[in-house]
Design brief:
The complex is a heterodimer of chains A (224) and B (538). With 224 residues, chain A is of the alpha+beta class. Chain A has helices at residues 22-29, 98-103, 115-119, 126-134, 138-145, 153-156, 164-179, 184-194, 199-206, 210-218; strands at 4-9, 12-17, 48-53, 60-63, 73-77. The longest helix of chain A is centred in the last third of the chain and has 16 residues, at 164-179. Among the domains of chain B are: 4-40 and 318-430, Flavocytochrome C3, Chain A, domain 1 (Alpha-Beta Complex), CATH 3.90.700.10; 88-134 and 208-314 and 434-499, FAD/NAD(P)-binding domain (3-Layer(bba) Sandwich). Chain B contains 17 helices and 23 strands. Chain B has helices spanning 4-21, 30-40, 64-70, 99-110, 127-130, 145-155, 162-170, 172-182, 214-228, 297-305, 336-339, 359-370, 390-396, 400-404, 406-413, 470-491, 501-512, and strands at 49-51, 61-63, 73-74, 88-95, 115-118, 135-136, 196-197, 207-208, 233-234, 237-245, 250-257, 263-273, 309-310, 315-322, 344-345, 377-379, 382-387, 424-433, 436-438, 451-453, 458-459, 498-499, 520-521. Classes of the chains: A alpha+beta (224), B alpha/beta (538). At the A-B interface, helix 1, helix 7, helix 8, helix 9 and helix 10 of A face helix 6, helix 7, helix 8, helix 9 and helix 15 of B.
């Protein structure tokens, strides 16, 4: 007999095996999920969840697919959160200090409560990356926010109404497009291809018999 | 977190670690690989396949679970669908909101076409989001698109369609540049050089990455760009059938609101199927690394509309799926872990295979180790082998794991396993659909000249096995190309009267063959409810 725990899904009591995740506990209880279920492996942020353990004061946030059930867990999922994404053309932006002021001015209303960081299901220092964004330090903001899966748990707890995930995303796009150095080898290779430098060679291999290709493949040198 | 029995085996892994660091395991000969695959790869278990009895690929084999859906009738057969008053009208209808669909949408929009994306979950709920290790492109000195072609062609058992593979490798560097321009943050050094590594079966280090969130970084950027361009995205809206016109063209799709069940008619001059893979079909009972909606819907819809399949009988099992702890069963452990030096090791601490053999060979090797050889490590979900992650920091230095594969570190830390200090247990997981709908090098299906397919739903780009990093590449290359081609085709496309008569024709064919599966298709979502059969709708 499996060890069972008691969980309260939207307040309703169910007994489920203790080794399940919150997501599989829902399914064990009989839910066929449509909302609040995406990649099921911690990358898409679809299953943001709020819970509290019976008798404890602390409200916690997590990804339902990455979190094991605990006895006495009261669970509510947060499958959609109305964040505010501003539209822009990356080609028309430049990574200067005004960008955030124009697109996401609410970040300057941050009161420093750190609720976003406490809520982060990825354990990121969210308030810190917002601080970098305020200063126009896009590169640091990009690095600090990089592992964000966009579950928006931070935004759900923010008294200033900040859409943190969107701020991090803008910083990353600006960093990649304008701040990180261009790859010279990439540019060169594209030019070579556009000049047709590989056309003849690739036609040659495409024209080879399977036996010839096997010979070529099995004896190719492999970079160390 | 490991049991005492597991810890005994961990000690043996630790005891052999230093010696293993000093000796690279031998690579297998071509004959040895063929022999291993024949005896241990799941594609060779004939009892897991059935013969397709209707349609363009009649007489060919496919996984039983897929054949069952191909042998089932449409969800909307006999239902009243108002084709005369479509509630959506567009130039290009894109079915699927993953990397291929989003790339196609951006390029079609760029070309001036009116575009609509429909997706049964949210945009970005796709295998693209979960791709960890990286994306290939031959853009370094010492490498070339020709070398990339040879690696991919050989790795795919010489079965790739040459024209499709040529396109993949020749357009790869431009795909990387396009993503970089859109703001995808690739790992670069201070001079701007891409940091690249090997993948299984590559002969040059051409794996570009964004830590181990490569697909997520690409997908969230594409999603943001789709939003900036104000391209309409109908979320929680699934296509259930392709609509045709009386001349046999694709003319849109019947959609269903996933939450209310309402049917919606979408009319389009050109349709792109970008529905992705099939991991949630759980072929042969395998767990999967795939997202919740990976149920081969596009294959079913396309096939019923008359398009043909190619290599539908070949599936990729990623060698390193998590097998312990049970909460993450089937989750992908990126190949990058092996690119960075971690070896596959049996219960006795022996490296039983070169860590960078192609995925099919490595998977077959693990299945042999856990099966016939009995040298796996038992867990409550089945047997697995060690992936010796602590080797990574012994080779590349302390801090490498946190910097290069933070998602892996995080996934295991949730269960108190520190992969910097302890190895992890893995077993093959259902990962990728090598086959799919057949297309020409222009991206169109042969049967229907305004129906395109892009991404994992396509068959033939990779052959009968796919190399790491060539799928993120193919969704971008073929997604972009499909978007451009669709916009162009839509501009000169005139549709006649809309019809769903092919659904009744298909039903007749099934009846003629005496096929009754008791279900309808496409599947749309798996059903993981316990005792689902005993529940009633309320």
């Amino acid at each position: 007999m499996k060890e069972m725990v008691t969980v309260f899904l939207y307040g309703k009591e169910y007994q489920v095996p203790s080794d399940l995740t919150i997501m599989t506990a829902f399914e064990y209880a009989g839910y066929r999920l449509k909302r609040g279920c995406g990649c099921r492996h911690g990358f898409c942020g679809a299953c943001a969840t709020i819970y509290r353990i019976k008798g404890k004061n602390e409200l916690k946030t997590c990804l339902a697919c990455q979190t094991q059930v605990q006895d006495g867990m009261y669970v509510a999922s947060l499958p959609f959160f109305p964040t505010d994404k501003r539209d822009y053309s990356l080609e028309e932006l430049r990574p200067d200090a005004q960008v955030m002021m124009e697109l996401y001015p609410e970040i300057y209303s941050c009161i420093g409560c750190n609720a976003c960081t406490k809520a982060c299901t990825q354990g990121l220092n969210v308030m810190q990356y917002i601080a970098y964004a305020q200063r126009g330090d896009f590169e640091r903001c990009a690095k600090e926010s990089f592992d964000c899966v966009g579950c928006n748990s931070c935004s759900s707890r923010c008294p200033a109404g900040i859409s943190h995930a969107n701020v991090g995303l803008l910083a990353r796009r600006l960093t990649a497009r304008y701040i990180a150095k261009e790859s010279g080898h990439l540019k060169d290779r594209i030019e070579e291809i556009n000049h047709g430098e590989y056309d003849e060679l690739i036609e040659q291999v495409m024209g080879k018999s399977i036996e010839e290709m096997q010979e070529l493949y099995n004896n190719r040198d492999i970079e160390k | 977190m490991y049991t005492p029995q597991m810890m005994e085996s961990v000690r043996r892994v630790e005891d052999t670690r230093q010696a293993r660091l000093e000796a690279e395991p031998a690579r297998m000969s071509a004959d040895a690989k063929d022999e291993l695959l024949k005896n241990y790869h799941p594609d060779y278990r004939s009892e897991a396949f059935d013969t397709i009895m209707v349609g363009a690929n009649k007489g060919e084999r496919a996984p039983k679970e897929l054949v069952r859906l191909l042998h089932s009738n449409s969800r909307i057969l006999g239902k009243k669908v108002d084709l005369d008053n479509p509630s959506v009208e567009t130039d290009v209808l894109i079915i699927g909101g993953g990397g291929a669909g989003a790339s196609a949408a951006i390029e079609a929009d760029e070309a001036g076409a009116k575009v609509v994306i429909v997706t049964k979950l949210r945009i970005g709920d796709a295998n693209t989001m979960m791709a960890e290790g990286g994306i290939q492109a031959a853009d370094k000195p010492g490498d070339s698109p020709v070398q990339h072609y040879i690696d991919a062609f050989g790795g795919g058992h010489f079965a790739a369609r040459p024209q499709l593979l040529r396109k993949l490798v020749m357009e790869a560097p431009d795909a990387i540049a396009w993503l970089n321009r859109l703001g995808v943050m690739f790992d670069k050094d201070a001079e701007g050089n891409m940091i690249t590594t090997h993948g299984g079966g590559t002969s040059r280090k051409r794996m570009h990455a964004c830590k181990d969130y490569s697909g997520a970084e690409i997908m969230r950027t594409l999603r943001d760009e789709v939003a900036n361009r104000k391209i309409p995205v109908m979320e929680f809206t699934s296509a259930v059938e392709i609509i045709k016109d009386e001349d046999g063209h694709a003319a849109g799709a019947v959609l269903v609101n996933m939450e209310t069940g309402q049917l919606i008619t979408a009319k389009a001059k050109c349709v792109v199927i970008a529905t992705g893979g099939a991991g949630r079909m759980h072929y042969q009972g395998f767990p999967t690394s795939n997202h919740y909606g990976a149920t081969a819907d596009g294959l079913i819809m396309g096939y019923r509309a008359g398009a043909s399949l190619l290599y539908q009988d070949t599936i990729q099992y990623h060698p390193t799926g998590a097998v312990y702890p049970p909460q993450i069963l089937g989750a992908l452990v990126t190949e990058k872990v092996r690119s960075l030096g971690a070896m596959l090791v049996n219960t006795n601490g022996e490296a039983f295979i070169h860590p960078l053999e192609t995925r099919d060979v490595a998977a077959a090797g693990i299945i042999r180790e856990c099966g016939e050889r009995g040298l796996g490590v038992d867990t409550i979900t089945g047997s697995g082998v060690w992936l010796d992650t602590p080797m990574i920091e012994m080779i590349h230095g302390e801090g490498t794991i946190e910097k290069r594969i933070p998602a892996m570190l995080r996934m295991y830390m949730n269960y108190d396993i520190d992969i910097r200090k302890e190895p992890i247990l893995v077993y093959p997981t259902l990962h990728y659909q090598n086959g799919g709908l057949e297309i020409g090098s222009d991206g169109f299906t042969k049967a229907i000249d305004n129906l395109l397919v892009a991404g994992e739903a396509v068959g033939g780009i990779h052959g009968r096995n796919r190399l790491m990093g060539n799928s993120l590449l193919d969704i971008i290359v073929f997604g972009r190309s499909a978007g451009k081609a669709a916009a162009k085709r839509a501009a000169d496309m005139k549709l006649s009267k809309l019809t769903l008569s092919h659904l009744a024709d298909y039903a007749k064919e099934l009846e003629k063959e005496g096929l009754k599966t008791g279900t309808v298709s496409p599947l749309l979502l798996p059903d993981y409810r316990r005792e689902a059969d005993e529940m009633i709708e309320v």
